[in-house]
């Protein structure tokens, strides 16, 4: 990924999707519904589902996926340890290229985490 932040990347992607939202509204609504259905409560909780999505994003080498899913994980209260264990599975399944994207995912998650007060 370039030097821009993951927050900037996700804002840029969201803005760049505007033509798709207006030009292909049924497609975009269906994709949104798919995401909502996939993340709905079930046997797995939302955080676990987002961890899976992050691992797949890393293995698929998708910077946008890393940005969106690390932000969701930060909102859901994921810990750095949970994210790192998930990234370990992504590296196991995806090899060296996934390791490079796992490093990016750590940076994206750290960026997405709320600032904590100094002790």
UniProtKB/TrEMBL annotation:
Tree of life domain: Bacteria
> Per its record, what are the GO molecular function terms?
peroxiredoxin activity
- Does this UniProt record's set of keywords contain ATP-binding? no
Boundaries of every Carboxymuconolactone decarboxylase-like domain copy? 25-107
User: What Pfam families does its record include?
Assistant: CMD
For this protein, the record's InterPro entries field holds: AhpD-like, AhpD_core, CMD-like
Q: Does the keyword Repeat apply?
A: no
Entry keywords, A to Z: Oxidoreductase, Peroxidase
* Matching PANTHER family: ALKYL HYDROPEROXIDE REDUCTASE AHPD, BLR3452 PROTEIN
What the entry lists under NCBIfam families is as follows: ahpD_dom (TIGR00778)
Name of this chain's protein: AhpD family alkylhydroperoxidase
Organism annotation? Azoarcus indigens
What phylogenetic lineage does the species belong to? Bacteria, Pseudomonadati, Pseudomonadota, Betaproteobacteria, Rhodocyclales
């Amino acid at each position: 990924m370039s030097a821009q932040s993951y927050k900037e990347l996700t804002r840029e992607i969201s803005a760049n999707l505007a033509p798709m939202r207006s030009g292909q509204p049924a497609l975009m609504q269906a994709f949104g519904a798919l995401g909502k259905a996939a993340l709905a409560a079930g046997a797995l909780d939302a955080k676990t589902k987002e961890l899976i999505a992050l691992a797949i994003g890393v293995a698929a080498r998708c910077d946008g996926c890393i940005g969106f899913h690390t932000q969701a994980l930060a909102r859901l209260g994921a810990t750095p340890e949970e994210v790192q264990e998930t990234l370990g599975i992504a590296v196991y399944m995806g090899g060296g290229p996934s390791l490079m994207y796992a490093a990016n995912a750590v940076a994206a998650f750290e960026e997405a985490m709320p600032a904590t007060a100094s002790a």
